[in-house]
Each structure stands twice: as structure tokens, then as C-alpha cells.
Design goal:
Blueprint lengths: L1 H10 L1 H15 L12 H16 L4 H15 L6 H18 L6 H26 L6 E12 L2 E8 L10 E6 L7 E4 L10 E6 L5 H8 L6 E4 L15 E7 L3 H12 L7 E7 L8 H10 L3 E7 L8 E2 L2 H6 L17 E6 L2 H13 L7 E3 L1 H5 L1
Helix pairs in contact: 2-5, 4-6, 5-6
Length: about 375
């Protein structure tokens, strides 16, 4: 019954979500201050969250984990328990209009129960999180290294230590765009000075990315949300590592490489760095320093659209599909099921690489990637 009524919203999602926010802000205009100036991305995220809640009713464990992450994330917007009631009233009012042909007292009761259960999970997660962590950290930009017209590497010094594991990401808000948060992977393992490094490429129309690359400098302050993400090293595994990055997807896998070489056990590391041209290998000098310091690390640039490049040509998936190129992996010509792989970057690259590794026999449970976060 929940799914059937929800399909009525799906067929007219733009109008339904517009109606929802109209009801919400009319009932309590003060709530508008919790949201970004432009609601386009927020509307999409809200409908995506609603979709996951409805279609995950058959998988309560997955749903609970998702809702807990959502509840913790809401803290940075100043959301409190009372706000969930206002959202419930606006949501039910929207469903009465857009699902009127299947609406009944029983359907409304089921929606209210499902929503209140979801809200309770989010509220409890936020309250637990509040016991040990602030909703955000203020961080000073101590270095702003412009590597290209549309790309910068930022080094940030949080006002207090921000706990994270290599492979995780933080959300960032700039002073230029209040209440607009965007996720960026941390490009280093934890350091004694507690500093974090981010790789940021300005996206067309990207408010936060454009501000970070072109409108931010040394001495500026940004806000950081708590670290999140599950693309972290398996603490029980001593297997060799295959790390694959495309674009600024290099950030999390570079952090994983730093962790691996300082973890106390020697694990062979192969780091494939995909780019369109040689000029796009923006962090290669740093990677060569890592390679020189640790002989068991091999950095392999892979370039797809530069005829003059003298190294590996194609995409990472092309390299795995061609046994003739495996010599560049220093003898990694078999036994793919006995390694751990981590892949980050543009969605098509991640999908192509994961599929290529599966064809080579690498078990899916040993291929870790950031695809879910990229699609969210």
C-alpha cells in the first residue's frame, strides 16, 4: 500500500515536491532558514531519500543504517526533533492531494507509522552523535595550491581534531553559500598536526566547488561536517592492494596508500591513476615521492586521450582487459582473487573497472568503491 501510493508521487514528482515545500514553509515560515537559497538540489535529495525509505521497507537493517546516516547529517543544518513533525504534516498533506485515488484512512495510518519510525531512527542517531561530536568543525585554509584553472588542493586546519579513517569524506560549507554542503574525500591519512587535504575540481555551475577553487584563499575559514563513508581498509586483511583512481577520485585512494605503507605490515601496493591527458595528472609529483620512499609501492599513470603520452594508454578497465599490459603491474599476472581493490572516481570509470576486475575473478566483496556516494 505504501509503494502503490508512492508511485503516484513518482509520476508527478516535480509538482508534488514543490507542493510539499509550499505546505511546509507556509505552516512554519521559520523553517525556510534551514534550507539553501536555491532548493533544486535539496528537492532532488529529499525525493531520493523518500524513495529509499519506501523501497527499503523490506530490508530493515539497510534502512536503519541509511536513516542513521541521514539523521547525523541533519545536525549540521540545525534540525531538531520538533522539525520532523512539521515535515510529517506537509508530507501527508501532499500525499492526500497527489495519491488521492488510492488514499484512505488505512493508507494514511500506514504512512504516518512508517514516517514516525523513520524519524525516530534519525532523531536517536543524531542524539547519540551529539554526545561525542559537534555538528560541524570550523577549519582554516592554511594552503591553497591551484594545480589547474579548475582544480585546487586545499590543506585545512580544523579548530579541534576531526576524527576520520583514510578513505572517508567530509562535507564542506563555504561562507559564500550558507547551508549548501558538498562532500569531498580526504586525501591524506590522519596526521599529528590534524590537518586535512582536499582535492577539489570546480564543476560547471558548482556553487561550493567553484567557491573553493576560485573564491577561497589562505586564511579563509570553511565548515566541515563529520567524516563518513565506508571505503576504508579491512583491518583484518593483509592482502596486497590494488588502488584505482580517476580524476579527483585520487584523494581517497591516496589516503589509503599512505595508511597502508605506515601500518606496520608490508603490503604490495599498485596505484593506477587514470586521466585524460598527461597534464591532468595533477598530483603525480607527490605520488612519485611516496613511491620513492616505499619500494613496494608502484604508481602507474594511465592516460586515455593523449597520443604523445609515453606510458600506459587507455582507461584502467582497458589495462585489466589486456594481459599484455600486466607486466607493468610487476608480475601481477594472476591470482586476482587474493588481493583487495579500491576504486574511486567518475561513475563510468568506477563501473568499468569493477566489471573488469570481476571478469578477472576478483570476488565482488573484495572490490571496494565509492559508487553509492557518487550516485547519491
Amino acid at each position: 500500500m505504501l509503494k502503490e501510493s508512492f508511485t503516484r508521487l513518482e509520476t508527478r514528482s516535480d509538482k508534488a515536491i514543490g507542493y510539499f515545500y509550499g505546505r511546509l514553509f507556509t505552516a512554519d515560515p521559520r523553517l525556510r532558514a534551514l534550507f539553501p537559497i536555491a532548493l533544486d538540489a535539496q528537492r532532488d535529495r529529499f525525493f531520493h531519500a523518500l524513495t529509499r525509505i519506501i523501497w527499503s521497507q523490506d530490508n530493515p537493517e539497510e534502512l536503519a543504517a541509511y536513516l542513521a546516516r541521514l539523521g547525523r547529517a541533519h545536525r549540521r543544518y540545525g534540525v531538531t526533533a520538533e522539525h520532523y513533525t512539521a515535515v510529517e504534516h506537509a508530507l501527508l498533506a501532499t500525499l492526500r492531494v497527489y495519491a488521492r485515488d488510492v488514499w484512505s484512512p488505512r493508507v494514511e495510518e500506514m504512512w504516518a507509522e512508517a514516517y514516525r519510525s523513520a524519524a525516530a531512527t534519525m532523531i536517536e542517531a543524531a542524539e547519540r552523535d551529539a554526545d561525542g561530536a559537534p555538528p560541524w568543525w570550523a577549519a582554516e585554509v592554511v594552503e591553497h595550491d591551484r594545480r589547474a584553472d579548475d582544480l585546487a588542493v586545499l590543506t585545512l586546519s580544523p579548530e579541534r581534531p576531526l576524527p576520520f579513517a583514510p578513505g572517508q569524506y567530509v562535507t564542506v560549507q563555504t561562507s559564500r553559500w550558507p547551508r549548501v554542503w558538498r562532500p569531498y574525500s580526504i586525501a591524506n591519512a590522519p596526521r599529528s598536526d590534524c590537518r586535512l587535504r582536499l582535492h577539489v575540481r570546480a564543476q560547471p555551475g558548482g556553487w561550493v566547488s567553484g567557491a573553493l577553487v576560485r573564491g577561497t584563499g589562505t586564511g579563509d575559514t570553511v565548515l566541515l561536517g563529520p567524516a563518513a563513508g565506508t571505503m576504508t581498509l579491512d583491518p583484518d586483511s593483509g592482502r596486497d592492494l590494488l588502488l584505482v583512481a580517476g580524476g579527483t577520485g585520487l584523494a581517497p585512494v591516496k589516503a589509503l596508500a599512505e595508511q597502508a605503507v605506515t601500518a606496520g605490515r608490508r603490503r604490495e601496493v599498485r596505484l593506477l591513476v587514470g586521466a585524460r591527458t598527461e597534464r591532468d595528472l595533477y598530483d603525480l609529483a607527490d605520488l612519485r615521492l611516496l613511491e620513492a620512499a616505499y619500494p613496494w609501492v608502484r604508481v602507474l599513470p594511465v592516460v586515455s586521450d593523449d597520443p604523445g603520452f609515453g606510458g600506459l594508454r587507455g582507461t584502467p578497465a582497458d589495462i585489466f582487459a589486456d594481459p599484455c599490459k600486466w607486466d607493468d603491474l610487476d608480475g601481477w599476472d594472476g591470482g586476482w582473487d587474493d588481493r583487495d581493490a579500491y576504486v574511486a572516481g567518475p561513475v563510468p570509470m568506477v563501473r568499468g573497472t569493477v566489471a573488469a576486475l570481476q571478469r578477472l575473478g576478483m570476488p565482488l566483496e573484495r572490490i571496494h568503491h565509492d559508487l553509492l556516494r557518487a550516485e547519491e
